[in-house]
Amino acid sequence: MIDKQIVFIKTFEIEFSLKQLSDIMNQEEMFREAIRENDMRIFSICCHYFGPGDEAKDAYQEILLKIWLNIMNFRGESQLKTWICRIAVNVCLTFISKTKKKASVFVPFAHMNYYDKAWEDEDYQGEKEEKIKFFEDFKGKLNPLDKALVTLYLEDMEYREISQITGLSEGNARARIHRIKKQIKQDWEDKYGIR
Fold first, then answer.
1. Domain end: 102, 132, 162, which one?
2. Is the overall model pTM greater than 0.85, yes or no?
3. Would you say residue 21 has pLDDT above 80?
4. Three-class SS string for the chain?
5. Is there a smaller number of Cβ atoms within 10 Å at the N or the C end of the chain?
6. What is the domain count for the chain?
């Protein structure tokens, strides 16, 4: 009788260990796929908040950790990229509040290497720098939520996804982005006339 109990316990332990191993393998596979598809998006969000320095790398690592710890809890109620972007934005906002960084929440685009070097003739360069400076000044006036909306909009996220990430209704997100676009256009026209 005792031998049968020991065999049963050993069989149960082996089956339980195999189940744990299977779960870990599934978690790893899901994590790798999620990161493969969203790696640049995650890093881009970090760079919008912190620039390409150490803070962005720290936030990026924290985001990867949060995704790893929670990937098995993803319920599929939204697209995976929406879920990941929500984690990324939340981690970045938490980093900002922890460091009490109240200066610029965004980093100048000029420091992010988004531009093609072949277009650097002097006339274009001067106009580009003027536009970048104008946009940096404009976004510096935005509150953190509106900056998050701008970041997600510039990442070509759909309004449905933006609303899921920010917690705003889709209509509210759409209206706020519309007002931001309208305001930037008005500020440009006030400063430079129509171009």
1. 102
2. no
3. no
4. CHHHHHHHHHHHHHHHHHHHHHHHHHHHHHHHHHHHHHHHHHHHHHHHHHCCCHHHHHHHHHHHHHHHHHHHHCCCCCCHHHHHHHHHHHHHHHHHHHHCCCCCCCCCHHHHCCCCHHHCCHHHHHHHHHHHHHHHHHHHCCCHHHHHHHHHHHCCCCHHHHHHHHCCCHHHHHHHHHHHHHHHHHHHHHHHCCC
5. N
6. 2
